[in-house]
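In response to the reviewer comment on reproducibility (Comment 2.3), we provide here a single inverse folding case reported in full, input and output, so that an independent group could reproduce the run without further information from us. The structure tokens appear first.
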């Protein structure tokens, strides 16, 4: 599609629906008013690490947070660090959002990441591992394994491990092997007993085997050994006749970000598959080694991998603590969070005779706002689509799919609907990072079933969360809509906190119909009523809302701004919030991850408060609420305040109209910002401080526990149409 067609579409609400942005945009704001986004991301991952370090949390949850930290950091290097390096190498070294060169930022990242990785390793060795041992879950080194257990381990090694190992020699006849990204490896030096010559070999730790091998079990007291430790102490079987001189673990991270020139390729799927193959061979960007590695081995790795000393991370073993996910799944309920059992949203609960609820009838009674995972995804979103697939009165289903799974009931519902003869459109975003290969598989599965699969607009990712069901009722068509903040993924819906709105409002129905037509065809439509749509006008719409609050404050009218996002980076939005603060508007920002906004600076942002909350659920919803002189406006949707969301993605926010739903969001916000709730507070210096203990040293209330209790007690009144 031509770019001018793109620019004509994806509009927003009528301009008359908003006040005009004033000339306040021209007001001067001080230099140095943004926090660096990369260092802010590392600060986010530090907050994850602080949960792992917290002795008040169940120990298997702490174990999981260590694994999450490692997984997060891997992706940060593969994407963000790789992107900075690419900009430096290609000469596209434009300044970052804080006016510094990518090379300088890369140096800061390296310093912070080295410190964090050491802290991560120490958290395991000195805090979590001993706490696990106290709970009867021990991770032993080979030297701590009893002789009789070594014999059993050797039998396991011979039967289950040895056959899949592939030692690769390095000598004139065997060049240095390819080292795959994120693989765990052993660097081995051996001596030929006959010639006395020293040789080098590389051995990959098989990723398909359990990372921790059970040594022994007595009741609930269980002992494990790391797989690489077991392998390292049985190397003689792999190199008979050779003397094992030394062995060390190492792990390489490669650039795995992808760049696809969509406007120059005729087939997006083929281009994506080719790029996935190239991703495996991206340049190295980080080398992790155990702290006992000798210089001879390290020099060889540096030379062969073409990596610098700055990119080497020397750590106490074990490397790759993502493997702790395996331990975190141990079935010891007392070592996990107490269970939260999702409830069915009041509107969708069975009737007096426990009959299956009619989802469509429930939505006709009024807009339904569902809060996951406190309220069940299966009995709301999934049930909505499954009922639509089976209902003979449903004529068409249109849906966006960003991240899901091939075995998802959502995908199956779309297949069932297509096979039943309904018109089904699935707008699949195959470019969802690190899900590309899976998305291609189930996109083709949908196509084979007769679903109309489209891949969105050239140059834009489709990130909005939309479902539209067209149903025939009494001779006319009615649109049932769902607009959400999270993906249509039943698995992640159990751990991602999100909101979703169900409505039969004709305005929303027309908005979604027009938007889907733009995404699948060549429609040019700018008039949306209850939606704010990126990339062209979502930012503009929010700026108008923010500026309206600024002018209300200047006029002495009630004003206030509350924003909940995963990331706050966009400079225009941040500057608008600074100006609102200067006018006296109280601004509350609830952010999970990156925040480039600098709160609490006198004369600029003293009226801005920033909080972050991490816990058992990943805070994922996006909320935008405005006081508006006593006539509150609130939106939920898919957009974070980042350039990619506002400029390079199709995003959608929907305005809530039911007063009780706006109150629900405000009550949640008030609770989250309370000093009685555990959270992290951002200071003007960019430092996050954890507030989780009261004056007597007792843990403060957990937002997610309180929210679950509130949802279970709640009986939401309905708005009748």
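Designed residues, in position order:
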């Amino acid at each position: 599609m031509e770019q001018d067609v793109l620019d004509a579409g994806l509009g927003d609400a009528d301009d008359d629906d908003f006040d005009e942005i004033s000339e306040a945009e021209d007001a001067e704001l001080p230099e140095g008013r943004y926090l660096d986004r990369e260092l802010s991301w590392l600060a986010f991952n530090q907050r994850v690490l602080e949960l792992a370090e917290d002795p008040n949390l169940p120990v298997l949850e702490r174990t999981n947070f260590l694994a999450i930290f490692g997984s997060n950091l891997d992706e940060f290097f593969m994407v963000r660090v790789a992107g900075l390096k690419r900009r430096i190498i290609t000469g596209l070294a434009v300044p970052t959002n804080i006016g510094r060169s990518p090379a300088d930022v890369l140096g800061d990242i390296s310093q912070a990441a080295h410190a964090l990785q050491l802290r991560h390793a120490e958290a395991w060795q000195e805090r979590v591992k001993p706490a696990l041992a106290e709970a009867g879950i021990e991770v032993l080194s080979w030297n701590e394994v009893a002789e009789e257990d070594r014999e059993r381990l050797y039998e396991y090694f011979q039967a289950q491990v040895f056959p899949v190992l592939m030692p690769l020699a390095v000598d004139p006849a065997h060049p240095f092997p390819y080292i795959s990204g994120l693989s765990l490896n052993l660097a081995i030096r051996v001596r030929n007993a006959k010639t006395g010559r020293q040789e080098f070999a590389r051995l990959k730790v098989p990723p398909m085997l359990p990372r921790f091998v059970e040594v022994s079990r007595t009741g609930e007291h269980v002992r494990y050994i790391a797989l690489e430790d077991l392998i390292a102490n049985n190397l003689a079987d792999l190199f008979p006749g050779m003397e094992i001189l030394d062995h060390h673990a190492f792990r390489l991270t490669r650039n795995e970000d992808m760049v696809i020139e969509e406007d120059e390729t005729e087939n997006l799927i083929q281009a994506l598959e080719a790029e996935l193959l190239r991703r495996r061979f991206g340049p190295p960007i980080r080398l992790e080694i155990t702290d006992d590695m000798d210089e001879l081995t390290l020099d060889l790795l540096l030379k062969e991998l073409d990596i610098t000393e700055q990119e080497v991370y020397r750590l106490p073993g074990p490397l790759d603590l993502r493997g702790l996910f395996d331990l975190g799944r141990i079935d010891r309920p007392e070592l996990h969070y107490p269970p939260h059992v999702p409830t069915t949203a009041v509107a969708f609960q069975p009737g007096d005779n426990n009959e299956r609820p009619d989802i469509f009838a429930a939505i006709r009674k009024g807009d339904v706002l569902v809060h996951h995972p406190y309220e069940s995804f299966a009995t709301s979103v999934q049930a909505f689509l499954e009922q639509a697939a089976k209902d003979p009165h449903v004529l068409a289903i249109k849906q966006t799919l960003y991240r899901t799974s091939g075995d998802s009931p959502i995908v199956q519902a779309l297949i069932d609907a297509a096979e039943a003869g309904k018109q089904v459109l699935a707008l699949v975003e195959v470019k969802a990072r690190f899900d590309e290969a899976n998305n291609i598989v189930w996109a083709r599965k949908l196509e084979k079933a007769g679903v109309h699969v489209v891949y969105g607009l050239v140059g834009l990712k489709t990130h909005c969360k939309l479902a539209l069901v067209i149903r025939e009722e009494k001779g006319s068509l009615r649109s049932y809509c769902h607009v959400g903040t999270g993906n249509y993924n039943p698995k992640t819906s159990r751990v991602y906190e999100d909101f979703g709105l169900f409505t039969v409002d004709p305005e929303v129905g027309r908005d979604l119909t027009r938007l889907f037509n733009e995404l699948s065809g060549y429609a040019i439509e700018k008039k949306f009523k209850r939606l704010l749509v990126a990339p062209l006008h979502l930012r503009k719409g929010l700026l108008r809302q923010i500026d309206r609050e600024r002018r209300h404050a200047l006029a002495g009218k009630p004003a206030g701004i509350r924003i909940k996002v995963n990331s706050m980076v966009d400079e225009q939005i941040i500057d608008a919030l600074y100006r609102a603060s200067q006018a006296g508007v109280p601004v509350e920002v609830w952010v999970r991850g990156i925040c480039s906004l600098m709160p609490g600076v006198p004369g600029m942002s003293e009226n801005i408060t920033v909080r972050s909350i991490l816990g058992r659920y990943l805070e994922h919803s996006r909320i935008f609420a405005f006081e508006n002189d006593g006539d509150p406006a609130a939106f939920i949707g898919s957009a974070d305040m980042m350039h990619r969301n506002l400029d390079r993605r199709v995003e959608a926010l929907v305005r809530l109209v039911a007063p009780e739903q706006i109150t629900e969001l405000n009550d949640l916000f008030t609770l989250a910002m309370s000093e009685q709730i555990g959270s992290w507070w951002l200071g003007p210096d960019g430092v996050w401080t954890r507030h989780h203990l009261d004056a007597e040293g007792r843990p403060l209330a957990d937002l997610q526990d309180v929210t679950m209790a509130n949802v279970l007690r709640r009986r939401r009144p309905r708005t009748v149409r």
